[in-house]
Amino acid sequence: MKFGISVCAVVALISSVSAQTIADVLRTNANGGAQFPSIAKTAALAATHPEWGTPGTKTLIISTDAGLGTGTDPGFLFTDKIALKWETDAKYNVLHDTTENPICVYDNYNSGFTLHFRTGMEDLVALAVLPASNGYVYVLPGPLTKLKPVTTVLTKNANLGVGAFVNLIERAGLTNTVNNLQNVTFLVPNDTAIIAAQARINALTVPQLQYVIAHHILNVPLYSNIFNPTPYTNLNGVQLPATSGPNAAGEFSNSIGGAQLMIPNDLTTVNGPAQAIRSVIIPDNIPANAAFPSVLPGNQLTPATTAAATTAAATTAKAAATTAAGTSAATVTNAANTTPAAQKTGGSSVLKSSSLLLFASIMIVFLA
């Protein structure tokens, strides 16, 4: 169920600058207001969170008491990096907590000032915005849950067409492995793309499938609001070219490795963001001894549990695969455009999806 936010009500709340701190605002509004019910549970926590009452630039995202139910998790998210002022700030932002971990995506692109706060597990619309002298409090109808592993998030969002990739991860025996990664980005082919590529996928051995899955994992967390048309390195050590601009249909789009980014995007996970793509990226030259890399090229956590097929030999396989992919004479096909892979680092064949969804938003980073 979606909860809208009244334009007049929000403007009324925002228009007067409050002399109260966030802690004071919580106590004053503990019993609720015209737009939201009681927030007494969170208000009671102010005494144990002195940072809510100190000067600065802060945003506190909370749930109503009804949304919290009988659970013990207080369900709030707090950042002292930005005072998110909805009417003047960027329309899209990835909010980080005090330890610089991504916590949720803020989306104000819809008409009527509908303020969405999204994670990989939910999409909630603000009931009210409470201004304070040191920032803002956003009241949601429920809590934003803590970040979950990527396979949990993709399964949760299977209705958006990203569930089939989990089946490939399971078939490759990599569920524990990918769920133990950190600081990565998952390029998730949508279900239509996987169906279109099913014949080639079925022809892969388990180690080869592991290699293909690693090809879809970047070694940095890449959110859409920081996308740049520069190559990104995947866990196989292969650089995938990135482009930004009009596609064959004249619509703006971003692509990585020849695969077009699409909605859903920026699904937050404990491992890093998951970005849907409309193609499966299968390298033309997969080494016979390919597997998921046992030594990762960046600051990712070396998985505590790996598939049986992942051995020390994967390091040699990765080096061979990087060389082979970098010198491949394959072509990258995207819509009606065919570009020789010799012009791109890490050439690969991209199997197209028939999905019509396009990732067409230019995101703006707001710097506090």
Largest sheet: 6 strands, mixed
Stretches with pLDDT under 50, minimum 5 residues? 1-15, 302-368
Number of strands: 20
The averaged pLDDT comes out at 78
Strands across the major sheet, in which order? 10-9-16-15-14-13
**Helix content estimate:** 10-25%
Describe the structure in your own words.
This protein is an alpha+beta fold and 368 residues long. The chain is built from eleven helices and 20 strands. The chain has helices at residues 7-15, 22-28, 40-43, 65-68, 150-156, 164-171, 175-179, 191-196, 198-202, 206-215, 313-327; strands at 58-63, 77-79, 92-96, 102-107, 116-118, 123-125, 128-132, 135-140, 185-189, 217-218, 232-233, 239-240, 242-246, 252-256, 259-267, 274-277, 279-283, 331-334, 337-340, 348-352. The strands form six sheets. Strands 10-9-16-15-14-13 form a six-stranded mixed beta sheet. The chain has a four-stranded mixed beta sheet with strand order 2-1-8-7. The longest helix has 15 residues, at 313-327. The radius of gyration is 22 Å and the shape is elongated. Residues 1-15 and 302-368 have low confidence and may be disordered.
Quick recap:
With 368 residues, the chain is of the alpha+beta class.
Per-chain topology:
Blueprint: H1 7-15, H2 22-28, H3 40-43, E1 58-63, H4 65-68, E2 77-79, E3 92-96, E4 102-107, E5 116-118, E6 123-125, E7 128-132, E8 135-140, H5 150-156, H6 164-171, H7 175-179, E9 185-189, H8 191-196, H9 198-202, H10 206-215, E10 217-218, E11 232-233, E12 239-240, E13 242-246, E14 252-256, E15 259-267, E16 274-277, E17 279-283, H11 313-327, E18 331-334, E19 337-340, E20 348-352
